[in-house]
Design brief:
3 helices, eight-stranded mixed beta sheet, about 30% helix, Rossmann fold, about 160 residues
């Protein structure tokens, strides 16, 4: 069951099929907010293309505050749990994605989490800060906005 957000806090959920621009919308929102002097942190994931004919070869994870990036998952390369044809890099997900969210909880006015889907939900060390971002306050007050990007497979934050 979904809980009501803390008083004064707004949580935005963007859902839809792959390729319609959810990540693009979040990246543009982050850029606009930062131009207004608003501290934005969290993490995004992006497709990585480069195979034959520009085929998708995986996904990267990016910490919005530090700029650190790494592989979230690669097609048939590396080690880790398999989701479809991709092997998920749990170490990068936790070290970059989860760390980016925790840093944003501590120091950002807006927390952006792009993609809470099957790959991300494999990690308890990711789920915990993602949940914390909607429930914790920064310096005694709730961040005014959290932007959740649940993807198409995640149906609930609970």
């Amino acid at each position: 069951m979904l809980e009501a957000p803390p008083s004064g806090k707004r949580i935005f959920l963007l859902t839809g099929p792959p390729g319609i621009g959810k990540t693009t919308a979040v990246v543009r929102a982050v850029d606009l907010l930062r131009r207004e002097g608003i501290a934005v942190g969290g993490m995004i994931t992006r497709e990585v293309r480069g195979g034959a004919g520009g085929a998708r070869v995986g996904f990267e994870v990016l910490d919005l505050s530090s700029g650190n990036r790494g592989w979230l998952a690669r097609a048939c390369q590396g080690s880790g749990p398999r989701v479809g044809r991709y092997l998920v890099d749990i170490a990068s997900l936790e070290g970059i994605g989860a760390s980016g969210i925790l840093g944003a909880v501590a120091s950002s006015d807006v927390i952006a989490i792009d993609e809470i889907g099957p790959m991300e939900l494999l990690s308890g060390r990711f789920r915990e800060p993602a949940t914390r971002s909607s429930n914790r306050s920064r310096r005694g007050r709730a961040p005014p906005y959290s932007c959740w990007m649940p993807g198409t497979a995640a149906r609930s934050r609970a």
